Amino acid sequence: MHNTLTRKKEIFKPLEKGIVTMYNCGLTVYDYAHIGNLRAFTVADILRRYLEYKGFTVKQVMNFTDVGHMFEDVDIGKDRMEAAAKREKKNPWAIADFYIKAFLEDSRKMNFEEPMERPKATDHIQEMIELILKLIKNGYAYVVNGSVYFNVAKFKDYGKLSGNTVEKLRAGASGRVEFNPDKINQFDFALWINDPKHIMNWKSPWCEKGYPGWHIECSAMAIKYLAETIDIHTGGVDNLFPHHENEIAQSEAATGKKFVNYWLHNEHLLVEGERMGKSLGNFYTLSDLTAKNYDFNSVRYLLLSTHYRQQLNFTFKSLEAARNAVARLTAFTHRLMNVKGIGRGDKIRSLMSNVQGRFEEAMDDDLNVSAALAALFDFVREVNKLMDDKMLSNEEAEEVYTLIMKFDKVLGVIGRLKKVVTRTPGLTFDVILAKDERGISEEVKKLIQRREEARKAKNWKTADEIREKLKDMGIIIEDTTEGPKLRIKRQS
Ligand SMILES: [Zn+2]
Questions:
Q1: Which of 138, 313, 424, 427 is the most exposed place for a label (fewest CB within 10 A)?
Q2: Is 272 part of any domain?
Q3: 34: CA distance to ligand 1 center in Å?
Q4: What separation in Å is there between the alpha carbon of 243 and the centre of ligand 1?
């Protein structure tokens, strides 16, 4: 695993055998998540899934930032929540609720595993105040005019993550911060801001109406739900400085312990070679892509297929390629369900052990997903050849299917085709192609057959009548390029 802290690849070793504590900087809920955000969360998800594949139990915490995150990431200025409240003429609590719901919906669609906790910053004001009190007591923070600042020059390890040491900051490395006469050093950052006019405010030991700084939120929530020292912390490379550097400074100055052992940062996402921006007209959310008829699996595949430490250039051409790749994998798993070859145990066994070895070797190497996928597609090609030659038995196909599903526990792009959870609680469907006859009753098979014949004869009335009849039986039929697809209502 590449560790930003040491700038090299290291053997991953958790603090406690078999258990991994992981914190992911979550979304600031003032807008929909864009595909750049979704890339960061896809990386966190695939990391968690692969650690589980390797047998670890992962305690994952992903927060929601709903106060104190400023535009341009300076520590005092315009709060994103405040700007959204103004934009939508709602109170900031309603804004947060709305975008949290939207994000949870996106997470389900993106097939992200549910974290152990999803804490909201505003639910943890007390924990933040306590952490700040500790920092004041330990001599790292100071109060001026009701606000509290962290004295960066007092923390000797400052800069160990980003390279922005106190000397470099003195030389003006962080020129973006506006002059503030209350600060001892201009690069000190705010822990608590006295601001009676701020739209969200709380009473604290230092002032009547104030709000927390963005950085202290993540420290407080990571410590509360995980530990004073955690194994892994992830985030986009744009969070590295000042956010993560400041998280380290606050946490370590308060606890006297190392905060995080492994820092993982994913690179930026570009759109058609350019930085994504609302003003550039190249800003996409998940719904923007589904409105263009792309499915969630293709988006997920695209976001995971480039190595996380490389810039990902999002293009519609690459999204098409992702869609084709997912379709190939899906068609392959469908084909496996309907195999009647003679079987040649030795050949398929060696192909299976080879692909598993290559898949794991690639993923063990700092989550090299692209190499893992290359191994997988080589395997698909070889097994397809065996099936063409009728050299794969039904039992062997079952084993291959199980192996593919094991890989897909990590990738998360095929398996859920089998089961669709609908909006109605408790109502689920199994989704299969009509040509995968397994599990379809004779009566249904005959109806599908008759409907196909009617469609060929352009007898739309009969075709529609049969569709309605199937619907009454709890089966929804959809016509796809691979043939009719069935959604069968589950008995349970
Ligand atoms: Zn954070």
A1: 424
A2: no
A3: 17
A4: 7
Quote the crossing angle between the two packed helices 92-109 and 80-88, to the nearest 10°.
100
The answer on 429 and 409 residing in a single domain is no
Q: What's the gap in Å between 26 CA and the centre of ligand 1?
A: 7
Question: How far, in Å, is the centroid of ligand 1 from the Cα of 260?
Answer: 13
- Cβ within 8 Å of residue 290, ≥6 positions away: 109, 296
Domain boundary among 400, 417, 434: 417
For residue range 289-332, what is the model confidence (pLDDT) as tens digits?
A: 999 989 899 999 999 999 999 999 999 999 999 999 999 998 89
**How far, in Å, from the CA of 124 to the mean position of ligand 1?**
14
Give the domain CATH number at 44: 3.40.50.620
> Strands (DSSP E) along 183-253, which ranges?
189-194, 210-212, 230-236
67-101 burial code (b ≥16 CB/10 A, e <16)? bbbbeebbbbeebbbbbbbeeeeeebeebbebbbe
Same domain, 444 and 385: no
Total domain count for the chain?
A: 3
- Gap from CA of 217 to ligand 1 centroid (Å): 7
Q: Which residues of 5-35 are buried (b: 16+ CB within 10 A; e: fewer)?
A: beeeeeebebeeeeebbbbbbbbbbbbbbbb
Question: Do 56 and 131 share a structural domain?
Answer: yes
Whole-number Å distance, alpha carbon 308 to ligand 1 midpoint, is 18
Rounded to whole angstroms, the Cα distance separating 129 from 485 reads 56
Distance 396 CA to ligand 1 centre (A): 47
Instruction: In whole angstroms, give the CA distance from residue 243 to residue 311.
Output: 20
Phi, then psi, of 7 in degrees rounded to 5: 60, 30
Helix 460-472 to helix 442-456 angle (10° resolution) is 160
Pairing mode, strands 2-3 and 8-9 = antiparallel
CA of 313 to the centre of ligand 1 (A): 25
Q: How far is the CA of 278 from the centre of ligand 1 (A)?
A: 23
Boundary residue ending a domain (417, 432, 466): 417
CATH number of the domain that residue 355 is part of: 1.20.120.640
pTM: 0.84
Q: C-alpha angle 200/202/206, rounded to 5°?
A: 130
- Condensed to tens digits (0 to 9), the pLDDT of residues 241-262 reads 999 999 999 999 999 999 999 9
What letter would DSSP give residue 487? E
Residues 118, 165: one domain? Answer: yes
CA 373 to ligand 1 center in whole angstroms? 31
Instruction: Residue 46: give the domain boundaries.
Output: 2-266
